[in-house]
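User: I'm writing a tutorial on reading structure tokens. Could you give me a worked example: one chain, its sequence, then its tokens, then a sentence or two explaining what the tokens reveal?
Assistant: Sure. Here is the example chain.
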Amino acid sequence: MTKRTYTFIDLFAGIGGFHQAMHSIGARCVFASEWDKNARISYEANYKDIEPTLFKKNKKGEYIYFNEDINDAVPSKIPNFDICCGGFPCQPFSVAGLKRGFEDTRGTLFFNIANIVKEKINSGHPPKVLFLENVRGLKNHDKGRTLKVILATLTELGYDYSYDVLNAKYFGVPQNRERLFIVAWYKDTIKVDRFKFPYGISPNGSTIYDKTDLKKGTLQTKVSDIFEPIDSIDPSYTISDRMWEGHQARKERNRQNGKGFGYSLFSGNSIYTSTISARYWKDGSEILIDQSDLGLNPRKLTPVEAGRLQGYRIIGNGWEHPECANNQNNNADNIEYKIVVSKKEAYHQFGNSVAVPVIKRIAHEIINQLM
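And here are its predicted structure tokens:
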């Protein structure tokens, strides 16, 4: 019996965190959409070898399947697919509850996803699974109305769904990062009552399905798992006296005003960092690495380390602890990710990315439970 190859589309694709995960389960990408020009450069550089058809061009030199603006995508021209992946932006819906569901999403980027799915259903090729990601705040966005409309739309299109918030720190990366995931399946073709989310990975590599079991322990991490060798790190990553003084003064001001904002300092032995964001390139304040033992100001993560913090396998200058080259995220079973843009853009892209190990584990569960 030949192994079934699944197909997927990658919407709001960024630098391809979903692509990495779906590739790990043997799925093929037949269409991708991303508007940011630098993210497009990174995406093509990293996936052209494994999915050359995705980057084919027509006689005018235009991409056929690597779409730029999702608003310009023609649903009928998108190849049929099994799974729709998308980390769509969180936007309020403008219609004030007149209808609920599909019509209510017009003018938003979620509408583009719903519209593609609807066209495929109408043409007799309903996508089996929708795999969506968003910020944790989507749950309460616009007093919960945004999520309500999204879920009503999925129901209207003929899908059952499960959704939950998962934290990357339980999946083998040293980062406290919570994101909301929605997995929906087409009721006419998949007869299951619910989808069990993976909440983490146990020390022996098995999936944890019960939140209370997280207390028993997950894959152990520490921040130094992602470090490049200390002697290879350029002194420019150490922040200046002026910036360090500014960070400390701001934190003190915020403390006096009752705000929790300011820099966050971690050592190599910290179990995890705070959430890396797209603004990390500005001053690195959310994740600074303590270097007081070297008599130095704190340093920023290198772009290589920022990418590893999201679970990408990036070789860089190697690892401070050579054994980390063989952990679940960095061993040769993972696609090697290459940084092909400026430092600023690399930070921006990793800050916007999904945490790959979380997506991977959900992708495996989608195949096991639904397909």
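What the tokens reveal: The chain has two domains: 7-219+355-370, 223-339. The two ends are 16 Å apart (CA to CA).
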